[in-house]
Amino acid sequence: MLDQLKASAIEYLSAHHVCILATLSAEGPWAAPVDYENDGLTVYLLLPRTGDETFHVETNPAVTLSVFDLAEEDQRQRLSRGLQYRGIARALTEEDLAQTPPGLRKLYATRERTAPGGWAIVRVTPRRLYLTDYRHGYGQRETLDV
């Protein structure tokens, strides 16, 4: 069961490339859409180097990611799926770039051409994931502790 749940989480993460990153700072919570790529359950984020979310990750590495499918209003309860992901974030150096997924390396290179030095790569290691799938009934949620 856990192997199947883990495989479902990886498949879901791999099918998406934008998530909502939630962080917490002394001023309070912050949420922003960010690009990501995954390698298994490990997620790599591409963040603006001077953005609030990057500063928050550096001062408090506990983060939550939210990935979800959009459904039409009349189908929302029947078709909604999503993944909530709690993890620990760590900024990587350019030397670490080789260990990131190829899609992220390509996106990083593209953005670096337009704004050199303007991007930070952050690796998020999972702690707990929640998979929601309302296709199997409203409120259906499974938990995976990693």
Strand order of the largest sheet: 1-2-3-6-5-4
Number of discrete helical segments = 4
Give the N-to-C terminal Cα separation: 14 Å
On the 0 to 100 scale, the average pLDDT is: 89
| Helicity range | 25-40%
Describe this structure in words.
The chain is an alpha+beta fold and 146 residues long.
Task: Provide a compact summary of the structure.
With 146 residues, this protein is of the alpha+beta class.
Task: List the defining traits of the structure above.
single chain, 146 residues, alpha+beta, six-stranded antiparallel β-barrel, 7 strands, globular
List the helices and strands and how they pair.
Blueprint: H1 2-14, E1 18-25, E2 28-39, E3 42-48, H2 52-59, E4 62-68, H3 76-79, E5 81-91, H4 102-114, E6 119-133, E7 141-145
Antiparallel strand pairs: 1-2, 1-4, 2-3, 3-6, 4-5, 5-6, 6-7
